[in-house]
């Protein structure tokens, strides 16, 4: 009774496409068989080497070997190439296996149809089925592939790197090998005196920075929005347009400009201070003042965004609430305290959390303005205003300490992700996603 | 009653003073750069804010000076930004349309995965992308940069999904009943409707690529391949005081196109910002 179903499934398990051929779906069968042959050949050759490479990261370093009378440079294993190559082949293999499973399922299903006396779908029907019922998956294929290889794979690899000793000067291929070291990098980062001192210092500053930066821009924006929104203020549109200018200038430009404005020797800010008889301030060169400068500049960059947001919320407050309050004889301050502020806080809390997370990763303001400087002598490759991200960037680009950079990246991710998931789960748009429509 | 009136006048005048002060702070850096770019000489130091005898020489110099390849950088940036814009608009629209209009198995998982992936700092994958490009010999090429920008923009496409969410379902259901295929619906109904959204996505990626410094500096190594962002950063980092007016002229040339775009896009940007707030 279930003859076709059984045979087709077994044939399909033996080789992709056989089941389909048995089911008289010739074009589909031949296509799958081609994939099977090419894939099988490819993976038979590559997979064992890829797994070996991933597990051992190579075992022969590059060295000089005496051949006859001369020394010859014999190229050994390149650990990082092995790591990437292995990862790529494993991902491809995963895709291959998924296709395999799907083809077995398909043969099984079609066999069952034949047992029930229905004729199997023709190729044309299959194509129609895919473009009709599987349309979303079809659309997602191209973006998914690009994300898989350019986002997911790099992240996987970065995570893996944190568990190796890939760093200058001892372990840089092709001259030297890289090895798996387990959690050693994290342990070093948190406990080895030279690294942990920098890590905790930079970490604490990152948190302080994120709190101050978020609070100052938020309340600055609130203040400006309330100023504009007051009864009796004229040219509201004009004020708004002027205040939004800092947001319209590309950050790259405005921050580099600020760097010049605050220049200790020649910058106009110190020049003006001079006119008022105040001495020049070391805006960018003193550890304390540099921190003040980045916070001030960040306010300049960030307040417009908060202002726009809060102005939007203010217009959404129902007017009759104010009217009712006026009837009850509430003063302007009472109206602000009882109606406006609670409403604004309620509507903007999720954004506050995203902004906080964003500030932890606020690369631009720090890197472009101070470059993390002024240099701090007892820090490992970091300066007084460096955040975790800018430190990570320097470790990668200038110092080739890839394993430490990756470990820091993972730590940042854990912090930001827990914050974001927490706030996302609280948001209505997550809970009621399908109800909006 | 008159005391209340005078208090009101006092409140308003204080507000106007504050507003004016804030306005000066907001405008000053921009004005300062603009005037600096017109100032003769090259130093950062100046006696007055507004130059006494303004000149356009620095703008000319930017394109003729042998040590800065400003024209070349402008062209590189334009090329990279335009191609990233096209590619990422395509990828984002396709994927967000699928995620918004269709209900299929694994959809919610996919959305959560995207959200989580978006939380990895770009810097995290940066390490790997750098090594990857190094091994693939793609460092210092523009193609690498375009691919990185485009694939990165897919994850940030939630705003597009939100847009498609607001188009009533009944519209495509009616078309389905009339026998239109999904592709026809997408092409004939959805794309024309989403023109404002496409503009928004296209232009934000364009500006993103136009000013991106982080990946550009990571990927582009040789001076003739640089983009404007890397070039400008280098100008400030290495020649701080000696070439300031030229830097200012360059800044004006970079910022002006973006500010013009911004003026057009303001409405969308504000909507995009507040979308999260009202849903919250």
TrEMBL record, chain A:
Protein localization: Cell membrane
Name of protein: Sugar ABC transporter permease
Keywords assigned: Cell membrane, Membrane, Sugar transport, Transmembrane, Transmembrane helix, Transport
Transmembrane segments annotated in the record for this chain: 26-44, 82-102, 138-163, 202-227, 239-258, 288-317, 338-358, 402-422
Domain ABC transmembrane type-1 intervals: 203-423
Gene3D superfamilies the record matches: MetI-like
Record-level GO BP terms: maltodextrin transmembrane transport
Record family assignment: Belongs to the binding-protein-dependent transport system permease family.
Native source species: Paenibacillus montanisoli
Cellular-component GO terms for this entry: maltose transport complex
Principal place of residence: membrane
UniProt topology in membrane: Multi-pass membrane protein
Origin organism lineage: Bacteria, Bacillati, Bacillota, Bacilli, Bacillales
One annotated GO molecular function: ABC-type maltose transporter activity
InterPro entries tied to this protein: MetI-like, MetI-like_sf
Automatic annotation (TrEMBL), chain B:
SUPFAM superfamilies from the UniProt entry: MetI-like
GO biological-process terms attached to the record: maltodextrin transmembrane transport
Subcellular locations according to the entry: Cell membrane
Domain ABC transmembrane type-1 per the UniProt entry, residue ranges: 74-265
Topology versus the membrane: Multi-pass membrane protein
Keyword Transmembrane helix found: yes
Main localization category: membrane
Entry's Gene Ontology molecular function annotations: ABC-type maltose transporter activity
Transmembrane spans: 12-35, 80-99, 111-136, 142-160, 197-220, 244-265
Protein family (similarity comment): Belongs to the binding-protein-dependent transport system permease family.
UniProt name for this protein: Sugar ABC transporter permease
Originating organism: Paenibacillus montanisoli
